[in-house]
Amino acid sequence: MKTMTIQSKDKEPHEIKQDFPVNFDNLEAKAKEILPLGNFEYIRGGAGQEQTMRNNRIAFESYAFIPQLLNDTSSIDTSISLFGISFPKPFIFAPVGMNMLEHPDGELAVIRAASKLNIPYALSTVSSYSLEEVAEVAPDHTKFFQLYWSKEEEISFSMISRAEAAGYRAIVLTIDTTVSGWRTGDLKINFSPLSQGFAKGNYVNDPIFRKNLLNGSYENYIDGILKNIDHAHLTWAHIEKIKKHTKLPVLLKGILHPNDAVKALESGIDGLIVSNHGGRQLDGVIGSLDALPNITKVVNGRVPVLFDSGVYSGVDAFKALALGADAVCIGRPYVYGLAIAGEQGVQNVMMNLYNELVTTMTLAGTSSMEELKKVELVKRNNQM
Ligand SMILES: Cc1cc2nc3c(=O)[nH]c(=O)nc-3n(C[C@H](O)[C@H](O)[C@H](O)COP(=O)(O)O)c2cc1C
Ligand SMILES: O=C(O)C(=O)c1ccccc1
Questions:
Q1: What average pLDDT does this structure show over 243-267?
Q2: Helix 288-299 and helix 314-322: axis angle, to 10°?
Q3: For residue 6, what are the β-bridge partners?
Q4: Protein residue whose Cα sits closest to atom 5 of ligand 1
Q5: Ligand lying nearest the CA atom of residue 45
Q6: Number of domains the chain contains
Q7: Distance 326 CA to ligand 2 centre (A)
Q8: 384 falls within a domain
Q9: Phi/psi of residue 139, each to 5°?
């Protein structure tokens, strides 16, 4: 593979493989060639008729921005600050479960890429490698732990304590996975990612989970994970308990309604992630980007508002940031990069997104996140 070196604005040289797919469709097509069909469809697919997935894209396509020119954009500052820490790029790795479905190095490859690029990394509860193994690879890098609430709450509290002990900097509680979405693609071929055994990382050595396993509450790990993962009983009352249990900032992932954003603030939540889970959970909901402006309005800068679902280019990231997101979380693109070329693939994807964002900022006359936030957008009614 030919390589070239790109000098990014945060002064770290990054190598990009020239024959690595650049745009999202090509990335997805390449991953499809490489991955077993079930794994690929699980990653690509969404819930139901995939209306929500389409709504995500329609939302991005509906916004257009109006550049203002003859501003000095010879130096672009993309840095952001989150919970008192500064990062050179406005990106975050979204939590994505079971990375061994894509590559044997799984989350270890992703955290290596994240730490080289200095992009915060959110590890999933259902990771293939444990939170401790991931932390060991990059002890000083900023990591968040995404929590799927367990039916047996002691397991969740145990995982939070382990994340604290291993140096994770925040807990991201995902609230949109009350039950797993109606994933028609997986149902069609009877594909069950959990049954492949790649979701065990955080459960295998969890003291509470093991105790229950030995007590015979579950037949095996997979049975135990399946029995624990749905959280339909989770309510606002739990947030108080979680906040009491940990000193770490707690973010809620999956906020779409401004009323929920208000409740989150009233409950003392430290940050929000506007997300519809990439259209994988509830079909027929609003595009995530369409939910963003009303939420940033009610939050009004009191806590960080992060964003995900459908960010597939630097221009998409630009639009989400212009609509008030403090950082954007990247999901499927990096997962495809991981499938294609492991750690290097993850780096390539993130650097392509980043370099396109920098190019977009330069052309749009915006040299910092503050200026980007002032960009004017127009929304048109789009049919795709
Ligand atoms: C294969 C896959 C697995 C995921 N696993 C999790 C998970 O374990 N926990 C979680 O909160 N979100 C999970 N997500 C959702 C992502 O965090 C994120 O919300 C989503 O990927 C954003 O949509 P996008 O990929 O279209 O940008 C997963 C997404 C994918 C594609
Ligand atoms: O597939 C997903 O999107 C996801 O979040 C999940 C939920 C439960 C188990 C594994 C992954």
A1: 98
A2: 30
A3: 14
A4: 96
A5: 1
A6: 1
A7: 25
A8: no
A9: -60, -30
238 catalytically annotated: no
Q: How far apart are CA 323 and CA 274, in angstroms?
A: 12
Q: Residues 119-164: pLDDT tens digits?
A: 999 999 999 999 999 999 999 999 999 999 999 999 999 999 999 9
Strands 327-330 and 305-307, how do they pair?
parallel
What percent of the chain shows pLDDT beyond 70? 95
**pLDDT: is 218 or 13 the higher one?**
218
Mutate-to-test residue for ligand 1 from 121, 203, 277, 312, highest number of ligand atoms within 8 A of CB: 277
Q: Report how far Cα 194 is from the mean position of its chain's Cα atoms.
A: 19
The SS3 assignment for 144 reads strand
Record the pTM.
0.96
Q: Which ligand is nearest to the CA of 150?
A: 2
Output the average pLDDT for the chain.
94
Q: What is the CATH number of the domain that holds 218?
A: 3.20.20.70
The single-letter DSSP state of residue 77 is B
User: Is the C-beta atom of 97 inside 6 A of ligand 2?
Assistant: yes
- Structural domain includes residue 154: yes
Q: Is residue 382 part of a domain?
A: no
Smallest-distance ligand from the CA of 312: 1
pLDDT band for 195, please (50, 70, 90 cuts): confident
Domain membership of residue 383 (yes or no) is: no
Which candidate in 14, 103, 231, 277 is catalytic? 277
ipTM over 0.95: yes
pLDDT on residue 19: 84
Per-residue confidence band for 337, with pLDDT thresholds at 50, 70 and 90:
very high
Q: Is any atom of ligand 1 closer than 6 Å to the C-beta of 41?
A: no
Domain range for 182: 3-375
- Characterize 146-182 residue by residue with b for buried, 16 or more Cβ atoms within 10 angstroms of its Cβ, and e for exposed: bbbbbebbebbbbbbebbbebbbbbbbbbbbbbebbe
| 383 vs 215: CA distance, rounded Å | 56
Mutate to test the pocket of ligand 1, among 28, 57, 280 (most ligand atoms within 8 A of CB): 280
Residue 336 annotated as binding?
A: no
Look at residue 7 in the predicted model and tell me its pLDDT: 40
Q: φ, ψ for residue 222 (rounded to 5)? A: -65, -45
For ligand 2, atom 7: residue with the closest CA: 180
